[in-house]
UniProtKB/TrEMBL annotation:
<dbReference type="GO" id="GO:0004492">
    <property type="term" value="F:methyl/ethyl malonyl-CoA decarboxylase activity"/>
</dbReference>
<keyword id="KW-0456">Lyase</keyword>
<dbReference type="GO" id="GO:0006635">
    <property type="term" value="P:fatty acid beta-oxidation"/>
</dbReference>
<dbReference type="InterPro" id="IPR029045">
    <property type="entry name" value="ClpP/crotonase-like_dom_sf"/>
</dbReference>
<dbReference type="Pfam" id="PF00378">
    <property type="entry name" value="ECH_1"/>
</dbReference>
<keyword id="KW-0963">Cytoplasm</keyword>
<protein>
    <recommendedName>
        <fullName>Ethylmalonyl-CoA decarboxylase</fullName>
        <ecNumber>4.1.1.94</ecNumber>
    </recommendedName>
</protein>
<dbReference type="GO" id="GO:0005829">
    <property type="term" value="C:cytosol"/>
</dbReference>
<dbReference type="InterPro" id="IPR018376">
    <property type="entry name" value="Enoyl-CoA_hyd/isom_CS"/>
</dbReference>
<comment type="function">
    <text>Decarboxylates ethylmalonyl-CoA, a potentially toxic metabolite, to form butyryl-CoA, suggesting it might be involved in metabolite proofreading. Acts preferentially on (S)-ethylmalonyl-CoA but also has some activity on the (R)-isomer. Also has methylmalonyl-CoA decarboxylase activity at lower level.</text>
</comment>
<comment type="similarity">
    <text>Belongs to the enoyl-CoA hydratase/isomerase family.</text>
</comment>
<dbReference type="InterPro" id="IPR001753">
    <property type="entry name" value="Enoyl-CoA_hydra/iso"/>
</dbReference>
Length: 305
């Protein structure tokens, strides 16, 4: 395994809300001596674990992006190379001003089987574990905070890191053949990509403990019942097409309005009360009197059932 370091530091223009949240995240990490922030190039060794790809298509007319995990020979396991591509894609999506929604899915009838075990077997020391964990924490936290309505479309298994990844979108929809399974404890570890924290916030303490300790598979019916998934895709439908139709109810408005709504919710979920109220006011002022607001006032919008 060829590991290497580089001093190249990527410069990214971070939007205001993200800046505040990143600042808050780094503070927490530093104060608890958790994983080092990965902007120091310490993650570049990931590129030595190749194979697979993460593909992105963006439609500027509809504002919909589709992200595809593309490593079907390994059931869309995530290689080091794919981790780097995923981070680049998230950075790209952050800057996509016309974007409204993102669908995340896997190629073939599998969502994702987590980290590539061929890579995991070669990085069992704590340094590499810590760096990979920090890198994926950052990437998936930023994915979660994107100013887009995001949905994971799960067909087949979402296992280990794949189960974690699906918690980093706003919604999850599942086919009848899908299941979500946090197998980490069965592998002698705990979730390392932020999925344990997100799962606990999604389904509550008792259910998260049940799912993480047992490593049992969650069916689509159970996932919907506990609020982990939001819809079951009817059998016989193309997964991405069905998900595209499903998400449209959230993306009828102009991009700046869809994005402002998401920003308000991210602030409400992650900031202190004072900070979140201030952020909400800022988002309000940004859209007040804008094209969508003017249009709605001109057409005298009514909202009868
Ligand atoms: C820090 C990361 C950590 C986390 O946070 O959770 C992880 O993600 S660790 C990885 C956790 N994932 C797993 O343990 C999944 C292991 N895979 C399986 O249990 C099974 O493959 C399956 C998902 C139950 C499917 O079984 P089946 O339908 O019988 O297919 P195969 O087992 O034959 O798989 C086909 C093919 O795919 C390869 N594969 C599957 N998963 C991975 C993986 N995670 N990494 C690398 N390769 C994977 C599998 O080895 C087969 O390849 P061949 O042997 O070449 O045929």
């Amino acid at each position: 395994m060829a590991l290497f370091c580089s001093s190249i530091i990527k410069r990214v223009v971070v939007p205001k809300l993200t800046r505040k949240l990143v600042g808050c995240h780094l503070h927490t990490c530093a104060s608890r001596h958790a994983a080092a922030p990965p902007d120091d190039g310490s993650h570049l060794w990931l590129s030595s674990f190749g194979g697979g790809a993460v593909d992105l298509t963006k439609d500027d007319v509809s504002g919909l992006a589709v992200l595809t995990l593309n490593n079907p020979e390994r059931l869309n396991a995530v290689t080091g190379n794919m981790m780097l591509q995923l981070a680049d894609i998230v950075n790209d999506l952050k800057e996509w001003k016309g974007g409204k929604a993102l669908i995340v899915h896997g190629k073939g009838h599998t969502f994702c089987t987590g980290a590539d075990l061929n890579m995991v077997r070669n990085m069992l020391d704590s340094k590499h574990g810590r760096e990979m964990c920090a890198f994926m924490h950052k990437t998936l936290t930023e994915l979660h905070r994107l100013p887009l309505i995001s949905v994971t479309a799960i067909d087949g298994p979402a296992i280990g890191g794949g189960a974690e990844l699906c918690t980093a979108t706003d919604f999850r929809v599942m086919t009848e053949q899908a299941h979500i399974r946090f197998v980490q404890a069965l592998l002698g570890i705990v979730p390392g990509w932020g999925g344990g924290t997100r799962l606990t916030r999604l389904v509550g303490r008792t259910r998260a403990l049940d799912l993480l300790s047992s490593g049992r598979a969650i069916s689509p019916e159970e996932a919907v019942e506990m609020g982990l998934a939001n819809w079951m895709i009817p059998t016989g439908h193309d997964v991405v097409e069905a998900t595209t139709d499903w998400v449209q109810k959230y993306t009828k408005g102009k991009p700046e309005v869809v994005r402002a709504v998401k920003n308000v919710v991210v602030a409400g979920a992650e900031m202190s009360l004072e900070e979140s109220l201030a952020e909400e006011a800022e988002q309000f002022v940004n859209v007040w009197g804008g094209p969508a607001h003017q249009e709605a006032m001109l057409r005298n919008a009514r909202h009868k059932k």
